Amino acid sequence: MKTILGIKNRLAAIALLAVAVAVSGSAAFADPPKTLKVTKSVDIAAPVDKVWDAVKDFDSLNKWHPGFAKDEIQKGENNKPGAVRKLTIKDGPSFTEELLAFDDAKHTYKYRIIESPLPLRDYVSHITVTPGAKGGSHVTWVGTFKRKSTSDTPPEAENDDAANKLITGVYEGGLANLKKMLGG
Questions:
Q1: 56 falls in which pLDDT band (50, 70, 90)?
Q2: What angle do CA 83, 86, 148 make, to 5 degrees?
């Protein structure tokens, strides 16, 4: 009887050790949050000044991006660093962003998300309009961010691929609509 109990106890200990090794071993292969980057751009036949006029106002994303219903300054002054806007997604939640830099002469601005229900954190983005081919414009939208989940194994909807897909969709949707509005 003692021998059987001893064997059972050893087997249980070996099983616990195997589970502990498997768990700690899988952590070594886990995917902790890292900084992700999405860059999207579009060429538009319209001149730089016309395209810049369409995108430059920090409180006008809803005027050219079909995914947003409302964009309003909550604090500060439009196009002045420190301004905070509240964006409302069509049929969805709201979140706030802060303008970090604005350069009218270089046709660029930079902003960050302050508060958001999106599965992202540390999001910083900038939009730039530069001269393109044949008198047109080239618009570039770049963002860096991390997924919100700090878990080594986040749910599929909250992993790096999902965060990249979300931002890629936002940028592509906005840039495609901008091109449609201003002439392809």
A1: very high
A2: 100
Residue 141: pLDDT above 50?
Answer: yes
Q: Does the pTM of the predicted model rise above 0.85? A: no
d(CA 57, CA 53): 8
pLDDT confidence of residue 30:
54
Nearest-angstrom CA–CA distance, 44 and 111: 23
